Amino acid sequence: MSYLTKAMLLVGVLGLAACNNPDRFGAGAGGAGGAGAGGIDSQGLGGANDPRSVAYFQQTLGDRVFFAVDQNTLSDEARQTLTGQAQWLQTNSDYALIVEGHADEQGTRQYNLALGARRASAAQNFLVSQGVAASRIRTVSYGKERPVEVCSTEDCYSRNRRAVTVLSLGAGS
Amino acid sequence: MTYQRPFGLLLAIGLIFGGLYGAPAVAQNGPLRIEITEGVIEPLPFAVPNFVAENGAAGEYAANIARVIASDLAGTGLFREIPASAHIGRVDSFDAPIAYADWKAINTQALVTGAVSASGDRIVVKFRLFDIFSGQQMGEGLQFAGTTQSWRRMAHKVADAVYSRITGEGGYFDTRVVFVSESGPKNERAKRLAVMDYDGANVQFLTDSRSIVLAPRFSPTGDRILYTSYQSGFPKIYLMDVASVQARALSDQPGTMTFAPRFAPNGRTVLFSLEQGGNSDLYSVDTSGGGLTRLTNAPSIETAPDYSPDGSQIVFESDRSGTQQIYVMGAGGGEPRRISNGPGRYSTPVWSPRGDLIAFTKQHQGRFHIGVMRVDGSEERLLTASFLDEGPTWSPNGRVIMFTRETSGAAGQSSLYSVDITGRNLKPVGSNGAASDPSWSPLLP
Fold first, then answer.
1. Does the CB of B363 have a partner CB in chain A at under 8 Å?
2. Measured distance CA(B371)–CA(B358) in Å, rounded
3. Where are the alpha helices (DSSP H) in A32-75?
4. pLDDT for B442 beyond 60
C-alpha cells in the first residue's frame, strides 16, 4: 500500500471517527480507530501502546479534562493531562485539534453552550501556553447536548463536565 | 367593557356576556363574570353542536370543525364543554331560531352554531355565538373561506373569535409553534427543527437530523425562523424562510460561536450571543447580515436576550454577579440594571407580548421552575416545578406560557408543556414525540 493510500485511509478513518462514531469520546470498548463502519481497515492507527498513535493520545495520555460544577478553572490533574497532550502535539505536528467544551444537564441550554465555550477556551489557552501553535486549535462548545454519561447523578455529571481534545490530520503548517 | 387588572396575585379576568356587542340589554342575571382568584375558577359552560353540513361534501368537516373549536375553548381551562349527549336543543339549520330554553335547561351559557359547505378543494365555514342567559346573539356572524386542507385553521379562527368576544382579549388558537423534535438516546440525541399547530396537529419537519439544531424563534410575522445549527460543525445562527424552507447563515464570523438569536419587533434586527475566546456577549445584526453591533462588553456570560414589545429595551441573562441573573438595558446597550433578586439562578427571560411581565427559568435547590415577574422584578411568582423546566415562550395574547420539561435519568426525555400565567392548567402539548425549545408564533393572518 502506497504512502498516499495509507494517508487517505487515515483521513477516512479519522473522518468517520469524528463524524459518525458514537463512541468517539472513548465511551465504548472499541477505542480509537475502531470505527467499525464499512469494514475499513484501521490497523494503520496503531494501538494504545504506540506512542505515535491517536489511541495513545486518547487513552494513555488522556484526551479530556474535567471541571467542577459551573467552573472553567483547570485543576492540577487537568493541567497535568494537558501538559502531556501539549508535549505529544509538539512531536506529532501533523495533527490539528478541536477542543470540545461540554456541560452537564443541570443548567439551561444557552448558558451551558456559553459555559462549554469557556471550558474549551481554558483548555485551549493552556495548550497554547505549553507551546502548541494557536493556529492548530479550534474550539467548539456542545453545551449539554452531548453527554457521555446518561444518568442524572453527580457520578455522571462529573464526567460530562469536560473538555475533550479531538485530533484530526491535515493540520498543515 | 370588561375591566381587567394588568396583573397581580389576584388576577381578575372578567368574562362577560351581553353589553359587549350589539344591544346593551341587561342580561337576566346581570353581567356574567368569572373571576380567577389565585388559581380558582369556575369554567364557563358552553356547547358547540356539530356544524350543519350544507352539502354532502361538507359532511366530514362539519363534525370535525366543531370538535376542534370545543377542544380549543375547553383547553384554555376557562371554559367547560357541555357534551352532545346532554343537549336537548338541535341545530339543524344555521338560520333557524335558537331554542334558548333548551340550552338554558342544561345550563349552557355560550352556544356556538355553525355551518360548512364544501365544493372541490374549497370550504366555507360560518358561525354565530349566542349568550343563552341574556337570550341574544353576541356580535355578528362571521364566515371564513379557504382550502379543505386548512379546515383546522378555520376552526381555530372561529374559536379565536369566540374566545375574544367572551374574554375581551385576543385569542391564540390560529398559531403555530416551531420547536426541536428529538429522537435517539440521550448521549446521541438527534434533533430536527419542526413546526406544528399550537395544539400539536400538523407536525412538519424543517430540517433533517444530520446537524444538531437548537432554540428556534419565530419572526414577528411568523414567516421566518431564527435558530442555531451545527451544520458547519460549529454552532452558528441561521435564518430560514418558512414557506420555501431555505436557510442561510447570518453573520458568519470565523472562530466564533453565535447562538441564542431573537428577532426585534421590527423583524429586521436580530439580537444574539457571540462567543469569542470563551467569552459570550450580546450583539445585534441586520437580517441582511450587515450592521453588526456589539451591545455588551463584559468578561461574564451574556445570553438569552429578548426585546420588549416596543423594541426599546432588552432583557437578558448574565452571570456577572457570580450566578445567572436577569438584567434589562436599552436596545442600544448601556448600563444594565438587575431585576431578579430572589434566591437561586434566573435565566432565559422572555418579555410578555402585553409588555407587563417577564417569564423566566429559575433554578433553586436542585429544582427548575418557570415563573413570571413584573418588568421591575417585583411580584415574582413560580408557575411550575420539576427536575428540569426551561425556556418559556408566550402565547400571542400573553395569557399562556409553553416550555420544555425534561425527565431525569438515562431514559430521560424532553416534552412540551403549557401553563397559564396564573399557574393553572398545566398540561403536556402533543408534538408527536420528544420535543424541546418551543417558540410560539403570532396569530396567523
1. yes
2. 8
3. 54-55
4. yes
Chain A CB contacts of B235 below 8 Å: 113, 140-141
Measured distance between the N- and C-terminal CA atoms of chain B, rounded to whole angstroms? 26
> Per the domain annotation, does A129 fall within a domain?
yes
B32-85: per-residue pLDDT in tens? Answer: 444 444 454 789 999 999 999 999 999 999 999 999 999 999 999 999 999 999
Are B187 and A145 an interchain contact pair (Cβ–Cβ within 8 Å)?
no
CA dihedral B192, B198, B201, B203 (to 10 degrees): -20
Please check the confidence at residue A4 and state whether its pLDDT lies above 60. no
Cα separation values, A48 from A10, A107, B37, Å: 16, 35, 67
Instruction: Tell me the residue ranges of DSSP E strands in B288-412.
Output: 293-294, 302-307, 313-318, 325-330, 333-338, 345-351, 357-364, 367-374, 381-382, 389-394, 400-406
Helix/strand/coil for B430: coil
pLDDT, tens digit (0-9, with 9 covering 90-100), for A99-140: 999 999 999 999 999 999 999 999 999 999 999 999 999 999
Which residue is associated with the grid cell 460549529?
A: B234
CATH of the domain at A131: 3.30.1330.60
Hey, of A19, A23, A110, which one would you mutate to test binding to chain B, going by the most B CBs within 10 A of its CB? A110
Classify B43 in phi/psi space as left (phi over 0), alpha (psi -120 to 50) or beta. beta
Please judge whether B406 and A105 are an interchain contact, meaning their C-beta atoms are less than 8 angstroms apart: yes
CATH of residue B65's domain is 3.40.50.10070
Same domain? B161 vs B113: yes
Q: Are B84 and B49 contacting, i.e. CB atoms less than 8 angstroms apart?
A: yes
B326 touches chain A (CB under 8 A): no
In this structure, the answer to whether residues A80 and A33 fall within a common structural domain is no
Question: How many domains would you assign to chain B?
Answer: 2
Chain A residue closest to B391 (CA)? A108
Structural domain containing residue B259: 176-440
**Which residues of chain A lie closer than 8 angstroms to B359, CB-CB?**
none
Find chain A residues with C-beta within 8 A of B185's C-beta: 150
All cell numbers assigned to B404:
420544555
Q: For residue A168, which phi and psi values (nearest 5 degrees)?
A: -145, 150
What is the grid cell recorded at B424? 393553572
The answer to whether residues B180 and B242 belong to one domain is yes
Which residue, among B424, B265, B423, B373, has the nearest Cα to B7 in the 3D structure? B373
A108 and A40 assigned to the same domain: no
Q: Do the Cβ atoms of A110 and B257 come within 8 Å?
A: no
B226 strand-pairing partners: B217, B239
Is residue B301 within 8 angstroms of chain A, CB to CB?
A: yes
Which candidate in A23, A113, A115, A140 is best for mutational testing of the B interface (most B CBs within 10 A)?
A113
